[in-house]
Design goal:
CATH architecture: Sandwich
Distance between the termini: 13 Å
CATH superfamily: B-lactam Antibiotic, Isopenicillin N Synthase, Chain
Number of domains: 1
Shape: globular
Structural class: alpha+beta
Largest sheet: 8 strands, mixed
Radius of gyration: 20 Å
Strand order of the largest sheet: 1-2-10-7-12-5-4-3
Order of helices and strands: HEHHEHHEEHHEEEEEEHEEHH
Helix content: 25-40%
Oligomer: single chain
Number of helices: 10
CATH topology: Jelly Rolls
Strand content: 15-25%
């Protein structure tokens, strides 16, 4: 297992948060919007200002929007169009690619109860099946990849629909563009934690990602306490999500109210997941969020970005304050990732699904399919 560089000393930010970001956090009625264009263009001082803004946002709300991010809008539009066509495929074709041992493939509607121990102290226990359907992808690999050959869980071959070749072309281009952007954002997070800008480079030499193409249909028979996607927090280092004009996404504010996320044309939503929450020793929050029953067909192209499988996700020493102790154990990203998915998704655990839906269930403590090796 590689480790994050422990010798780096804190480098205090030279500026404070901008007036716009501060005002958005104080109002609490919409997401802060950050313009990353000048930073990506190399404008002096832009990195330091974004670091100060992200620090303030991630210590308070955990979500923001970015504009001028460099991901071509035609690529995003085409990816949405192809995703819409994906979910119009006949049920029998989609079910040929159903998820199983690997969290890669088609997840039918109402086939899982999203429930997580990570936020159990903040929300009521979910006992209802989520209404959304999804198609799940990990980093694209070839048949001769060592992790594919070793059948490493969640590191297998992606399941692409044979009848939609244009979908694969669009989504691979989309994933590559999102990966480039996520890598470009790493120095902002390093400075937000008052670390050297290049701090995270060694952890992202072979980064992993998880792409979730989701379809939230308007459910006519929604039950009380049922969601299109139940409250949860992401497991990622950071998450990127293109905005859509169809509402439904809500995030939990520090006062535990639910904030409706409004649409900003051309913007991407960015939030911190549990990996950066661990690395920062709880300084940067992994905010609970959910999707409620939408008024129309809603699609999502969620890009979850992770460090290398063997990177340490233990708290960074410089993020542990005087008199504090590490709040998380030392483990690799992969050792975190598999239990995270098992804690959140329970479609392989028939007993859990039956008990949870009856109201008798509690967050599972036994990973599904644990007879298979975690990683070689």
């Amino acid at each position: 297992m590689t480790t994050s560089p422990s010798s780096a000393r804190a480098q205090p930010l030279q500026v404070g948060p901008s007036a716009g970001a501060l005002a958005a956090i104080r109002r609490g009625t919409s997401l802060p919007v950050l313009d990353v264009g000048p930073y990506l263009a190399g404008v002096p001082g832009a990195l330091e200002q974004l670091g100060a803004d992200v620090k303030m946002i991630q210590e308070n709300l955990g979500f923001f929007a970015i504009v001028n991010h460099g991901v071509p809008q035609p690529l995003i539009d085409e990816s949405f169009q192809q995703t819409a066509e994906l979910f119009e495929l006949p049920p029998e074709e989609k079910l040929k690619h159903r998820v199983g041992y690997h969290h890669q493939g088609y997840l039918p509607p109402k086939s899982s109860i999203l429930q997580s121990r990570a936020i159990i102290d903040k929300i009521a226990v979910n006992t209802k099946k989520d209404t959304n359907s999804a198609w799940l992808f990990m980093r694209e690999r070839t048949a001769d990849d060592p992790k594919v050959l070793a059948n490493v869980r969640h590191r297998g071959l992606n399941q692409w629909p044979e009848s939609l070749p244009a979908f694969k072309i669009a989504l691979l281009a989309y994933q590559q563009a999102m990966e480039r952007l996520a890598l470009a954002l790493l120095p902002i997070y390093a400075r937000a934690l008052e670390l050297p800008a290049e701090y995270f480079a060694d952890m992202f030499r072979e980064p992993e990602y998880y792409q979730r193409c989701a379809y939230y249909h308007p459910e006519p028979s929604i039950e009380e306490g049922q969601y299109a996607l139940a409250p949860h927090s992401d497991g990622s280092f950071l998450t990127l999500l293109p905005m859509t004009p169809i509402p439904g996404l809500q995030i939990m504010t520090p006062s535990r109210d639910w904030l409706d996320v409004g649409y900003i044309e051309g913007a991407l939503i960015v939030n911190t997941g549990q990996v950066l929450n661990r690395l920062s020793n709880d300084r940067f929050i992994a905010t609970p969020h959910r999707v409620v029953n939408p008024p129309g067909k809603r699609y999502a192209l969620v890009f979850f970005f992770y460090p290398d499988d063997d990177a340490s996700v233990a708290p960074i020493p410089a993020c542990i304050g005087p008199g504090e102790q590490p709040k998380y154990d030392s483990r690799s990203l992969y050792e975190f990732f598999v239990p995270y998915l098992d804690d959140l998704y329970h479609y392989n655990d028939k007993t859990f699904m039956a008990e949870a839906e009856s109201g008798k269930g509690a967050p599972s403590t036994t990973p599904a399919l644990e007879s298979e090796p975690l990683m070689n």
